[in-house]
Amino acid sequence: MMTFNLQGKTALVTGGASGIGFEVASLMARSGALVAINYLPGDPRGEQALATLKAEGLEAIAAPGDLSDPAQAETMVKEAVKALGHLDLLVNNAGTPGVTKPIPIQDLESVSEALWQTLLNVNLMSVFRCSKAAAASLKASQGAIVNTASIAGFGSIASTLAYSASKAGVINLTKNLAHALAPEVRVNAVAPGSVESSWAIEWSEERRRSTVAATPLQRWCTPDDVAELIVYLGFAGRMITGQTVIIDGGISI
Ligand code: NAD
């Protein structure tokens, strides 16, 4: 594991109670940062995440809010920044695959208007909403934003039509935000391949096996692999902005 010294730093992680979001919140807290964890109101994983950190002697701030709702997203960011005192890093990580068992449901024939709206609203619009609400604080602290995109956003992956388009939007928004917020704030994104999180655990044994077989580095990408890259882009990488860094064990090459 990489180690970072984040004493005195603060961060807000959306979708921070599980998977990649929890790993990045946890890595930053262990490195000395004060972290606010956003989660869907009523999701028991929010309290669990805070309790897990507390058991390790780490403090974190609860920041519940459904980011598909513009008003909740704005209020959540404003209250989190107030509780943190200032904001150095916003990690726009909340997302949904929009798929349920049995997958796939995003073929041209079957993808619905409602699913398109959900995916664009949660995966893309939430990034815009939270970034806008955090912009003044991030400028004041010369901070950074890191968005969680996906390799799906660079091309097409079978049966993820609307999800891929939402993540392509995140990659483009990353560049536009980088322009809009420069020179004070750097804005980057990570684009994971298949990550062993709550989604992939639901995959069939055969799909899991073939994914590893097709990956040059011959293993799954883990949430903490992605967390290290997010923290690097957020707090190091001082001449990097507007970029989306692929982290997929080489599967996309
Ligand atoms: P995850 O399901 O554990 O994390 C997503 C989190 O976002 C969950 O905690 C969920 O409750 C939260 N969320 C969903 N809708 C929300 C809303 N409206 N408001 C607030 N929070 C909301 O899965 P993960 O793999 O850790 O996903 C994190 C990010 O990584 C997502 O943006 C996802 O698109 C991206 N990603 C995942 C993979 C993968 O293979 N798992 C690959 C590429 C990119």
Quick overview of this protein structure:
This protein has 253 residues and is an alpha/beta fold. The chain is built from 7 helices and 7 strands, in the order E-H-E-H-E-H-E-H-E-H-E-H-H-E.
Give an overview in words.
- The protein has 253 residues and is α/β, with parallel strands linked by helices.
- The protein has one domain (10-247): Rossmann fold, CATH 3.40.50.
- The chain has helices spanning 19-30, 44-55, 70-84, 113-141, 161-181, 205-213, 223-235; strands spanning 10-13, 34-39, 60-64, 89-92, 144-148, 186-192, 244-247.
- A seven-stranded parallel sheet has the order 3-2-1-4-5-6-7, sandwiched between helices.
- Helix 1 crosses helix 7 and helix 4 runs parallel beside helix 5 (161-181).
- The mean pLDDT is 93.
- Bound molecules: nicotinamide-adenine-dinucleotide.
- The site of nicotinamide-adenine-dinucleotide has 29 residues, from helix 1 and strand 2.
- Nicotinamide-adenine-dinucleotide binds at residues 14-15, 17-21, 38-40, 43, 66-68, 93-96, 122, 148, 150, 192, 194-195, 197-200, 223.
